[in-house]
Amino acid sequence: MLKTNREYETTDLNFDGGSFESNLCREDVTQKDSLMNRKEAARYLNFKPNTLAVWDCTRRYDLKPIKIGRSVRYRKSVLDQFLLTFLTP
Predict the structure, then answer these.
(1) What radius of gyration do the chain's Cα atoms show?
(2) DSSP letter (8 states) at residue 59
(3) What domains sit in the chain, N to C, each tagged with a CATH number?
């Protein structure tokens, strides 16, 4: 059964003294998990942007792309985990 928007609001947010507070601290997310576009992520991983596009399409590696409209973003923490997992000798 699909949840309505109202149900998501009550499960995802905590009501705290007159204001809604998210479960995640925004400062922690922005400092640890900066978002990169496909070109920046490819440069960071030392691959070409088209390689990342193929991986996203074929799901060869799960880089957990975030789609915002037509653009794609990647979290730096996910890319770091990929480097540690797959490219460590």
Answers:
(1) 17
(2) T
(3) 5-86 (1.10.1660)
